[in-house]
Fold this protein.
Amino acid sequence: MNLPENYRTYLKTQGLSSVTIKNYVADINHFLDWLYQKTHVHHRVAGIDIFGLFTTETFKEYKADVAEQNTPLTTINRRLSALRKFGQFGLQIGSLNQNPVLKIKNVVSESNQSPKQNWLVKFRKSLEEEKVSPLTIKNYLSDLRHFLTWLEAT
């Protein structure tokens, strides 16, 4: 099963513009490539079983990784929209019981971020100024996000 092409067909039935369809399919391919790098599970081999990897945590990690690559906010949010629509596609074909991407919020500009988000952005900038390696920065921020999420839950 060629998921990106089936998704393209689904988007056409939803009446989306050809530009949106092109972007959304590219965004899904980007996500599936990222997912392969993380899990070594290829969507062409897994087929619809790839939806088993679709968890809120997976999408939070994807969002964080894309944001840490200095991807423009509009691109991140479009990718999240494409993933939400992909989740709807998964629901329609019966591969998902719920759409976990609906729990993932869009990224907001720094001026509209929460104090926690502002703090993380400032921390990242501080590390960059100290010439800390990108991988170390990514790991530090990931660890801090997990810790802060745990802290908020307790």
